Amino acid sequence: MQLHIPVALNRCVALLTPAIEKSNSPIVIDATLGMGGHTRALLEAFPSLRVIAFDRDSAAIAIARKTLHDLSERVTIVHAVYDEIAVTLENLGITAVDGVLFDLGVSSLQLDDADRGFAYSQDAPLDMRMDQSTGLSALDVLMTYSRTDLIHIIRLYGEEKFAPKIVDNIIKARDAGTLKGTKGLADIVKESIPAPARRTGGNPAKRTFQALRIEVNQELEVLTRAIPQAIASLAVGGRLVVMAYQSLEDKIVKKAFTEVTTSGTPLGLPVDLPNSAAHYEFVIRGSEGASEAEIAENPRASSMRLRAIERVAA
Ligand SMILES: C[S@@+](CC[C@H](N)C(=O)[O-])C[C@H]1O[C@@H](n2cnc3c(N)ncnc32)[C@H](O)[C@@H]1O
Fold it and tell me: What transmembrane ranges does the database entry give (predicted)?
């Protein structure tokens, strides 16, 4: 298995530091625990910090429990989807937190485990569920969705212009009973794309696999619900840091951040009207990417966009 390297680790710790240091008993939410790289770094940097960590994948949680064993007294691990932040905090009796971190997408653990069905390079069942205990698998989606819905998903979530041809060939295979594992799907995609288009942009199956993964895990809907909960959970001075790896997720984050950092005062007035100043400010104007040095060490970091805001008023 490829060694897991947490992305932008030092930068995330630095962005959360002022928010953590202003509190006597700081609490941070790690919305995407994974193998616990970011949580470990934060707990080691701040001895009074408590982390509430979410992951929807029980395999990731089992590994994180082991790797964070020495720090277990200061980390509460929750097996849940991150759109359950609000209800989880309420259940724990926590009214506000000092930081929230999202490191979106799949982990290298999930990608490297061929049986999970995320990778097109090895043959495996078409699963792609981050939480294998619930929901439709990729095969269920491919076998039961209409042609129109499949085209919509692959075009929108995969930004794939050959979606209609791919879906026609998927439907032929499903009608013939030959639609099976990840390799079979990757071959169908390859055959559906004209030869000149196959020569650029990496493996042609990448976009279709991304689209199915987003649909199977309802990634965009869940993120759209989760970001406002994370924003609302911050104490004054608290910070929200998000790393997205594909443009559809980054757009959701950007839109939510722009809304809450925009004053309600009409444009052109020199000062904010009473009660209409924004309660949040950008910590990073726009977004940041990873450094070239980090990308050379960890290619996954190349598509990362990092955004951060701070709550400045109650
Ligand atoms: C990129 S990895 C996080 C890696 C982590 N920062 C580390 O250092 O090990 C993303 C993790 O978030 C989890 N995840 C993705 N979407 C989720 C969601 N909607 N709710 C909860 N966990 C989610 C995945 O199962 C995966 O383990």
Answer: none
